[in-house]
Each structure stands twice: as structure tokens, then as C-alpha cells.
């Protein structure tokens, strides 16, 4: 009888959750009176990520003789989607503020997340579909997205805003393909995760010792979508956080996150923490030789960065993932190529870059 009650409770909970899960990024934008469009791009290796766009002011409030502004691209965090940027609504949400100011706002989505689980010939049920790391997102998805936006808007440059993983992939791209620095007007990286030697997150502190030598976990477990592991956490977390008296954006965040991705993305961050290096994914000796023609993965050379203006970094002392010690290491290497903006609030943390009001 007890088991039956649990099953019924979960069924009712799933019905409630699914009603909200049916909203995509465009639905959430349209709810607030802003226009929205969606596009599908094709990467060189066959993935079909979705882009969303809100091209300017709320409907019915267009400005006369408005000067055209360059597009703005927002890229999300690990196991997230474009949804995370619109959950705060028009009063506190950065993309709404930008759109109200006349900017052409675009939202990217990394391969494998909720909006990017299509491929020309691979099925998301196949292991091969999930055989990607941060490197493919940075060096294939991101430049494909940038080129698509510039072509669609007939612009030469765009503004870039990256949060957490969105900052990681931007730095990877600028190191590996520095010519993309000339396609960036300004760049703004919130909670930047580049070096991760001094991470204080309890989850990382627990997982790093379990990883063992680089790539051991991946070789043993193979590749798979993270949604299989974390879906129930999202449902139970939503139920807990949606109970009175909690009144934050966390319930909505848990409805849309985790938005799926490959386990290799997480392993690569663990490798950053384990080795203290900002480098390509380490597949182990044999696979490294096949992929890189070297026994070790290449390190991303920060000296290659060639943006016209300094990269704006935004960080907080209470961020357990993008720590001030690791940011200091980054500062020591790139110096005047970055401007360093500290959030002067004691309790401000990694999640607050998205959810603060």
C-alpha cells in the first residue's frame, strides 16, 4: 500500500511538472510580451543545435528611428539550456533588459541539451551521439553559432555573454582559434571556470579523488547523457523548493535544469581540477595518440587571445566553483587582456549570477 501511494504521488507530481516543462525558451519570452524566433543550425559533424532570438523591444513598444545595435549572444552553464537566462523575467532578467534597450539578443544551446538533441544521422539513444566533451562545444558549436548569427544579421561582430561553462568554451575558442577575437565586439564572462585547482564545491571535492588517473572513469563507464542520472533529482528538488514559504526562481531552475549533456563534460571539468591545467579532454594514452597524435592532450594557450577589447570577468568571493584563487592564476597569465570585476556582496555565489534580483 505504501509503495502504491509513492507511485501515485510521483505520477501526480510528474503531471504537474510536465505542464511547466512544456514551455520552451520562446514560450517563456513570449509570455512577457517580447518577440521570439527559433533557428536550427548544422555543425560540421552533423549536430543540429537550436538558437533562440528576441530581436529588440517588447511588442507594441518599438522605438522610432532606433539605431541598430550589434547582436548579443548568451551561452549557458554546464547541463543547462537557454532557459536559464529567461527565468528571472523582464524585471531582473539580463536578456530582457538588453532587448528593451534595442539589442538583438540570441541564445545559444550546446549540443546534447534539451534543445540540441538532433543529429543528421545519429540518434540520441546511441552512445556515439554523446561522445563529445567541452572541446567540441567550444571549437565546433560555438564558432558555428557565431557565424550563423553574423550572417543572419549582416554584422561583422557581436557581443558575447557567457555564464560558467559559457565562459569556459569562449576561452577555449579564443585560445584555439584566435581569429574569432576579431568577431567579438565585447565579451562578458560571469563566474568564469577556466582554472579549477582551488574549487571548494563539496561535490567536486568528493568526485575528484574518485576520478583516478585521467579518463579512467570514462573508459569504464562509456559515454551517456546526464539526464538519465539526474532527472529524478530535478523532479524531487522541484517539489521541495516549490513548497511554502520558498519564493525564488529555484523551482523554475530545477524544472529546466539539468537540461542534459554528456558525462564527458563533467569529467573534463574534473580533469581541470585534478591537474590544474586548462587543456583538451584527456582520453588516456592510446586514444590521445589517435585523436591528438600525442600522448597528452594539448593545453589551451592563453597567450593566443586576440580580442580587440579586454575580456570582462565577473566573479565573487563566495563562489565555490570559480574561486578567486583560480581567477588570480588566470589574471597572472593574461593580465591586461582582462578586466576584473568583483561582486562586492559577501554571500553572492555561483548561482546568484543567474538568480539574483
Structure description:
The longest helix has 20 residues, at 2-21. This protein starts with a helix and ends with a helix. The chain has one domain (18-355): Rossmann fold (3-Layer(aba) Sandwich). The protein is of the alpha/beta class and 357 residues long. Strand 7 (311-316), helix 13 and strand 8 (338-343) form a beta-alpha-beta unit. It has 14 helices and 8 strands. InterPro entries: AB_hydrolase_fold, AB_hydrolase_lipase, Lipase_euk. One of its GO terms (biological process) is lipid catabolic process. Belongs to the AB hydrolase superfamily. Lipase family. Residues 28-89 form the Partial AB-hydrolase lipase domain.
Describe the protein's topology.
Elements: H1 2-21, H2 25-31, E1 37-40, E2 50-55, E3 71-75, H3 89-92, H4 94-100, E4 104-107, H5 134-153, E5 158-163, H6 165-176, E6 184-190, H7 202-211, H8 216-221, H9 227-241, H10 250-256, H11 263-275, H12 285-292, E7 311-316, H13 324-334, E8 338-343, H14 352-355
Parallel strand pairs: 3-4, 3-5, 5-6, 6-7, 7-8
Antiparallel strand pairs: 1-2, 2-4
Helix pairs in contact: 5-6, 7-11, 9-10
Amino acid at each position: 500500500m505504501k509503495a502504491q501511494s509513492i507511485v501515485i504521488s510521483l505520477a501526480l507530481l510528474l503531471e504537474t511538472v510536465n505542464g511547466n516543462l512544456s514551455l520552451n525558451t520562446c514560450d517563456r519570452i513570449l509570455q512577457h510580451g517580447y518577440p521570439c524566433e527559433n533557428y536550427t543550425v548544422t555543425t560540421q559533424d552533423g549536430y543540429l543545435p537550436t538558437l533562440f532570438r528576441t530581436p529588440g523591444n517588447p511588442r507594441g513598444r518599438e522605438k522610432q528611428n532606433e539605431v541598430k545595435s550589434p547582436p548579443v549572444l548568451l551561452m549557458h552553464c554546464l547541463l543547462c539550456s537557454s532557459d536559464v537566462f529567461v527565468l528571472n523575467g523582464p524585471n531582473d532578467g539580463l536578456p530582457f533588459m538588453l532587448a528593451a534597450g534595442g539589442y538583438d539578443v540570441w541564445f545559444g544551446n550546446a549540443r546534447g541539451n534539451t534543445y540540441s538533441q538532433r543529429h543528421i544521422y545519429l540518434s540520441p539513444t546511441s552512445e556515439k551521439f554523446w561522445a563529445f566533451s567541452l572541446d567540441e562545444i567550444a571549437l565546433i558549436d560555438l564558432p558555428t553559432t557565431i557565424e550563423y548569427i553574423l550572417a543572419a544579421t549582416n554584422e561583422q561582430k557581436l557581443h558575447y555573454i557567457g555564464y560558467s561553462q559559457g565562459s569556459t568554451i569562449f576561452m577555449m575558442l579564443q585560445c584555439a582559434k584566435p581569429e574569432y577575437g576579431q568577431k567579438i565586439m565585447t565579451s562578458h564572462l560571469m563566474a568564469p571556470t577556466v582554472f579549477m585547482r582551488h574549487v571548494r564545491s563539496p561535490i567536486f571535492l568528493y568526485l575528484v579523488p574518485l576520478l583516478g588517473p585521467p579518463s579512467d572513469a570514462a573508459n569504464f563507464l562509456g559515454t551517456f547523457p546526464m539526464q538519465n542520472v539526474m532527472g529524478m533529482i530535478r523532479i524531487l528538488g522541484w517539489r521541495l523548493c516549490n513548497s511554502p514559504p520558498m519564493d525564488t526562481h529555484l523551482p523554475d531552475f530545477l524544472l529546466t535544469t539539468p537540461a542534459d549533456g554528456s558525462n564527458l563534460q563533467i569529467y573534463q571539468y574534473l580533469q581541470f581540477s585534478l591537474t590544474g591545467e586548462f587543456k583538451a579532454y584527456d582520453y588516456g594514452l592510446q586514444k590521445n595518440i589517435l585523436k591528438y597524435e600525442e600522448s597528452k592532450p594539448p593545453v589551451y594557450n592563453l597567450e593566443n587571445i586576440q580580442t580587440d577589447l579586454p575580456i570582462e570577468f565577473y566573479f565573487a568571493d563566495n563562489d565555490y566553483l570559480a574561486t578567486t584563487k583560480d581567477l588570480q592564476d588566470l589574471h597572472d597569465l593574461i593580465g591586461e587582456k582582462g578586466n576584473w570585476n568583483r561582486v562586492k556582496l559577501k554571500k553572492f555565489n555561483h548561482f546568484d549570477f543567474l538568480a539574483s534580483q
